[in-house]
Each structure stands twice: as C-alpha cells, then as structure tokens.
Amino acid sequence: MLVRRLIARLLDWLLVLVVAWPLVHEPVLVVLCAAVYDALLLRWNTLGKALTGLRVVGPASGLSLRRVLARTLITTALPGAGVVLVLTGLGWREPALMASLGWQQPWVVIGEHLPIGSAGWLASLLLVGGVTLLALSAVESLDLRGTRTWHDRKAGTAVVRLKASIR
To answer: Phi and psi for 108 in degrees, rounded to 5?
Structure first.
C-alpha cells in the first residue's frame, strides 16, 4: 500500500508540474497549484490515486472542508515548501518571483547588492529548513498503520484500495 501511495503522489506532482510550470514558472506557485489540485480533488479522486486504484475516505459523515485542508497542508504544502526552500538555499531563483519581491540575483534586498558571502548563512538556513521539512514529510508518510499514516490520523482520513470490478 505504501508503494502505491508513493506512486500516486509522484504522479499527481508530475501532472501538476507539467501543467503548471509552463504557465507560472515559479516554484511557490507550482506548490500552490499542487495544494489547490489536492484540495479540490480530494473528495473525488486525484489522477494519481485513480491510476493506482486508491481513494481517500473520511468518516461516515464524509470529508469536511477542515479535513481536506488539514490533509492538503500536511501532504502537499509542507513538502512543497521544503522543495522551494531547498531550491532557494541552493541558489536557484526564478527571476519573476524574486523581482516581484524586490530581489535580484545573487541577492538584492531593498535595492542594495549584497556580496554572496554575507548571505551564505541565510542560504544555509533555507537549505537546512527545506531538508528538515522534506525529512519530516518523509518520516510522517512512512508511519503507516493499516490504511492510515500520521497525516491520515491527524486529518481523520484513510486511504483505501478500490476493488476491481469483475464482470
């Protein structure tokens, strides 16, 4: 079940990346698109889960908005933020987003160029923060108990395998 869940997640991220990246060219916006994709389709089924025969279910009362948002935050937004922090810490910057924040490469804050060395601690901090978020996301995803991982238990959801229809 864990391998199916991982494949479903990777397929969903790949789909969002292929569709969103040419449109927005910003890692932060791609993560936002992935979170919206997950939140909107969680009550039905994402493409990755449909292809792997999985479905997210809630209690008998169904998937409330609170459950959907909690699960999306833990499963999509946090690891996505980790990826963005790692990319930023490694020095990769997409010009449009940084320019909108008033930054230019390598580091420009409030119109002042800063030598790369003075921002090295910030890059290291971003890199460590991103790796930490990714590691926590991986650990919590591996905490599988039956059909529920840690994020399923926190959101009150479970992932079940759909039965194949036999004719």
So the answer is: -130, 125
> For residues 36, 39, 40 and 42, what is the CA-based torsion angle, rounded to 10 degrees?
140
Rounded to whole angstroms, how far apart are CA atoms 63 and 144? Answer: 20
Nearest to 150 by CA among 164, 160, 137: 137
The CB-side HSE value for 40 (13 A sphere, CA atoms) comes to 8
Query: From the first residue on, what is the mean pLDDT of each consecutive set of 10 residues in the chain (167 residues)?
Result: 84 88 81 87 84 84 79 84 83 57 47 47 82 85 77 82 65
| Beta carbons of 57 and 160 less than 8 angstroms apart | yes
Using an 8 Å Cβ cutoff, are 158 and 57 in contact?
Answer: yes
Tell me which residue of 3, 13, 2, 11 sits closest to 50, measured CA to CA.
Answer: 11
pTM above 0.90, yes or no: no
DSSP string, the chain: -HHHHHHHHHHHHHHHHHHHHHHH--HHHHHHHHHHHHHHHTTS--HHHHHHTEEEE--TT---HHHHHHHHIIIIIHHHHHHHHHHHHTT---HHHHHHTT--SS-EETTEE--GGGGHHHHHHHHHHHHHHHHHHHHHHH--BTTB-HHHHHHT-EEEEPPPP--
